[in-house]
Amino acid sequence: MADLYETALGASTPDTITLLGQDLARDVMGNVGFGELAFWLATQRLPTTGETRLFEAVLAALADHGFTPTAIVTRLTYLSAPDSVQGALAAGLLGGGSRFLGVTEDCGRFLHDVVSTVEPPFDWDAIALETLRRQGKARIPGLGHHVHKNGDPRTPRLFQIAEEEGLVGPHLSLFAAIGRVHPQVLGKTLPLNGAGTCGAALADLGLPLELLRGFALLARTAGLIGQLAEELRNPVANQIFLSVDSNTRSVAPLEE
Amino acid sequence: MADLYETALGASTPDTITLLGQDLARDVMGNVGFGELAFWLATQRLPTTGETRLFEAVLAALADHGFTPTAIVTRLTYLSAPDSVQGALAAGLLGGGSRFLGVTEDCGRFLHDVVSTVEPPFDWDAIALETLRRQGKARIPGLGHHVHKNGDPRTPRLFQIAEEEGLVGPHLSLFAAIGRVHPQVLGKTLPLNGAGTCGAALADLGLPLELLRGFALLARTAGLIGQLAEELRNPVANQIFLSVDSNTRSVAPLEE
Amino acid sequence: MADLYETALGASTPDTITLLGQDLARDVMGNVGFGELAFWLATQRLPTTGETRLFEAVLAALADHGFTPTAIVTRLTYLSAPDSVQGALAAGLLGGGSRFLGVTEDCGRFLHDVVSTVEPPFDWDAIALETLRRQGKARIPGLGHHVHKNGDPRTPRLFQIAEEEGLVGPHLSLFAAIGRVHPQVLGKTLPLNGAGTCGAALADLGLPLELLRGFALLARTAGLIGQLAEELRNPVANQIFLSVDSNTRSVAPLEE
Amino acid sequence: MADLYETALGASTPDTITLLGQDLARDVMGNVGFGELAFWLATQRLPTTGETRLFEAVLAALADHGFTPTAIVTRLTYLSAPDSVQGALAAGLLGGGSRFLGVTEDCGRFLHDVVSTVEPPFDWDAIALETLRRQGKARIPGLGHHVHKNGDPRTPRLFQIAEEEGLVGPHLSLFAAIGRVHPQVLGKTLPLNGAGTCGAALADLGLPLELLRGFALLARTAGLIGQLAEELRNPVANQIFLSVDSNTRSVAPLEE
Hints:
4 copies of one chain form a homotetramer.
Chain A: E1 5-7, E2 11-12, E3 17-19, E4 22-23, H1 24-28, H2 34-43, H3 49-62, H4 69-80, H5 85-93, H6 102-115, H7 124-135, H8 154-164, H9 170-186, H10 194-204, H11 212-233, H12 237-245, E5 248-250
Antiparallel strand pairs in A: 2-3, 3-4
Helix pairs in contact in A: 3-8, 3-10, 3-11, 4-5, 4-11, 4-12, 6-9, 6-10, 7-9, 8-10, 9-10
Organism (chains A, B, C, D): Lentzea aerocolonigenes (Lechevalieria aerocolonigenes)
Pfam families (chains A, B, C, D): Citrate_synt (PF00285)
InterPro entries (chains A, B, C, D): Citrate_synth-like_lrg_a-sub (IPR016142), Citrate_synth-like_sm_a-sub (IPR016143), Citrate_synthase (IPR002020), Citrate_synthase_sf (IPR036969)
């Protein structure tokens, strides 16, 4: 007896192509935006207009931050292997791990671990206080930013859009409360960073927690294509390589 | 004197974040869709509504085709290394090369090589005939489909959207002409496939030819996140692995 | 003032190339084996003959296990993108994460966490008993194998080579003790698996714990090249893809 | 009827593990060096001692060249995603494409295209002259080096080892002849570079031409592990990132 691999995603017959149970050509192409489609593919439900707006705001917030390590990596890989655009993009995405892109996922999971254990009516400030006290000296994901020390401009904007669309759920609520009460516990005031707020928003949108990092990577794919397009017009990768090369000093190995 | 690396993409100061010369939080987030933003990042110009619609139709056409090799690769990699979503997505994208995702780029480039050498007024059928004759027995990128032998449903839909938006340019025009005249040269009728039509449409949208494969990869990133989300809900990767494993026969090496 | 990036690895002048402080052409090429060189690069000290033998035995133990997910991934990626050998190898390596290749690293780290807290004279059986009791119901890395239930043939061979070369250090000693005493704690007898023993041996060789997974990946790179060479002579990737494709069933999405 | 996937590589039963038709634990581990094993996996025949020596000399020649783009990429990716050693190594390998690591493969293929069309007795100088004349203004793979303008030290060493081992075959012979006669055709003297000589040597060793780049990548994997080990001891990746970041100038996009 053969195994059967089930999927509700793309499927083809000689005369038809379906995607998510829709006729791809007639119902999806020309009618569904790309952010909407990405949400739909991940959840298998069509988002509302408001959900799409908040989701696309998150993607915009994460798409590009200039010459980050991932952008440099994509440009250097394209310099070395211009025959493989897929390799340059993949190499850049591989930097999307715990340190530079991971805050979004870490924050979403951290909030969810709390949210999934509390019951209404919610006193978010009290819950936040207890959470912060339990956390002790451990880092709070999403709290603090090494550049935007007085506030990350993306954070209030994401809260504003979520409010306009009626999408402030428990994760954003708890995160806002952490923003209000943490000075009482930590003795200093830190900004809620944008990457963390993105994680809270994605969790409130019901996207799978295991894949929150994936949405940051989707956003970053668009950004990395932008980096490659700019590299084609105004190359800098070789200059970056040469600046490293010319500042290299050969030293003796540990043991000779 | 220090090197200066210029970029018009993301930039930050302690109080502001800009992207493409815009205030990211105020002007981009909440106002710009994700497909629109991806186009903007690649070209550094804001697309029109019609351009965005055609671009997003192309992305929808390429996002997912079920259990393709790239989808299987992403699922198997996630099975092996569930700690690294970025690795699973990158592995899937690495299959986006010459055979399975390359038609889009090959077709766009093939058409552009012709388009860039002809001058108005254009007699596309005559140009197509000459192109096909010069090509001899070499493969025409975008012509033929191993499943949709009577026509790829995405192709007429893309032409329809391009017409509705006034975006049928020289690449789509030449491709359509190839569709009309190739039986005279080849002695048989083949469909214009969807992936090739996507390449023609992306070239008419003015996107960089070197990166046409990149847009297929962007679309596929959304598809692969959908594959991972489905794998989380209804896993099949281990079953695929076991079906290979249980059908393996150990044979003697070439020389023992 | 310029930054200076120091390295003891490769360096060039117009007339010389050095590696690890040696003249590459005269001193390394033709004189140093590849396993020896890999060890030297990682530690910046030349291994003894015995260390090289044990290290290469570990690499042999991990190089290839037939149609594992990583091997299937490399073959499928090469099918999709035959223009990029680097992409096919990279995709396969990306499966080298926590589940399929991670035991080597996990076991090495687990043993090291214990070894670094005890002082001579060592009563390894007592230390192992205490370690296993403290671990409670948590998994012991390196203990058990889903196929080799009566013993992994690589395990006694690695211990034998380490003994022959006088290289049984605290990690292998503790692992052997775990093999002896765990039935008292777990109430059942499990084999010490080969991947875990490799981790213990690599740790005893003084290789950096953060990179134990890297050596498994080096071994696997050789294995994946073997997989690609076999795929070139006797292709199976397309058959694997078709067997998945032909066993696919399209189902309704979660919400329609 | 089930498909059968054949392999002569790794295979397991509950009590045995075989590799290349050998008992892995008894016959391979402890007896076969890692370079020897990599050759064996790729060709399914055990190399002679001389073949192993030449092969390992090639791997040593290609393992590391200091802060190349691939090394920088691996270090930056590890900085961003220290949780995924496999991602850092894979990202570095993805730069192993046409420009930085491709010479080895290009040269091997170029020579083979000629070698496969000539018959004994061979007048290599005459064949080389004809080859160079036919090539016209096209680049000769393996000829010239941007740093080692007076000669790449690896080249004479590889020829010496091949001669000592009786392994100078048609590819190395033709390449040497190109080195002798090219000034007559090109009107200037260029060195035979080491990467190209490696390609000629690998081709003479009978390794598959489609995978010559793969052996460069295997060598580089060892080098990249060395880079990561050095990065752990003496980190520079963040400094490289900051030197780019601090030399960045934000400019207006193409169209505002």
